[in-house]
């Protein structure tokens, strides 16, 4: 076995849904590509021998007890060009927000210099928040969408990127729209090929994604053609589904069917499809998701502003739908998956308890809706990895070593670093970017906190 790097650290990850495992002084061996070849605990028979070997070969990276290593987070839904307006205009309804803020901003990405400046800053920011993998909507501009892919490749972030398609003249402004259905398809094909070329020299992986913005923005023929393209090449697909009252009813009015039914009929659902939000998914839609293996990108901060309701994570999880977490910059204001993980827990409790205190408690909320912190941790890591069909989110043989190093001494850990159960909870609830000291993607350090 050829081990090129050994990591010695206290680690913590969610090996099962709802369970967190904490291993003190784990010894992890990585191959040249940053894939985990073994993980040994101090009680394992070969531990001491391997540790000695690692030291002798001077290939050991050791972290002391003030550090805790968590798996890198996966942001399953983020609009890269919207980064400049993060935190802005969140009091507007979705339709107005798109028309007055988002479309004017995204149209500026025909400018290569502006695009590079924003995208460089965004990718740096995400890495500094522990996001090692991201599924991006870029803009409708093919060339600058490609420059986002190049920036991620260079900075070492694993990225899934789509050139946004939006060609419906009824629902998109004249100044920001694909020229025609045909050009949207050709540019998408071209974009995918270029990203695949880039991927040949990108260790951590960079992947093209078929990206119809959402059904309202696209014509029927475009949706159908994109579905065929995805199926022919087994491409990933991302879009929005049943996001809000307005969006959900728009699709009903146009087709007489639900978002999920229409996305399926266009060939856009499947094991490599990830749909954002889905708060209004009905039983038929949920069954379609489960049958096709489509994943949900749950964006709990964004949902508080635009979704008119709360996603029932617990219910959909029970129905067998895979769920990851997304920041939805800039429908959500925070680039941090930590913030979204916490919000996911909080809103699930509000959903369970209800909000109207004038009602008797048994009539106030929806029973069995809450998710625990451990479950939210799973959605932020393993759930995202399963959506992307990659071995991500765990410290385990054959998984990519994607990791964030938390400095526990920056958190209120009075009494030391002995209580494992309180340490991982504090780490998940209290970590902000300054507490993240370093980030690794596939064994390579891609961020070092200079503070
Ligand atoms: Zn979105």
Quick overview of this protein structure:
The protein has 451 residues and is α/β, with parallel strands linked by helices. The chain has helices at 47-56, 94-106, 112-128, 142-155, 181-199, 220-233, 245-255, 259-265, 283-292, 300-306, 313-318, 337-353, 361-364, 373-387, 420-430, and strands spanning 5-16, 19-30, 36-40, 60-62, 67-71, 73-79, 131-137, 158-162, 164-165, 206-212, 236-241, 273-277, 295-298, 323-325, 403-407, 436-441, 444-448. The chain folds into 2 domains: 5-71 and 394-448, Urease, subunit C, domain 1 (Roll); 73-387, TIM Barrel, CATH 3.20.20.140.
Describe this structure in words.
The protein is an alpha/beta fold and 451 residues long. The protein folds into two domains: 5-71 and 394-448, Urease, subunit C, domain 1 (Roll); 73-387, Metal-dependent hydrolases (TIM Barrel). The protein has 15 helices and 17 strands. Strands 6, 7, 8, 9, 10, 11, 12, 13 and 14 form a nine-stranded parallel sheet that branches. The protein has a four-stranded mixed sheet with strand order 3-2-1-4. Helix 8 runs parallel beside helix 9 (283-292) and helix 12 (337-353) packs across helix 14. The longest helix has 19 residues, at 181-199. It is globular, with a radius of gyration of 22 Å. Bound molecules: zinc ion (ZN). Residues 77, 79, 240, 276, 328, 331 line the site of zinc ion (ZN).
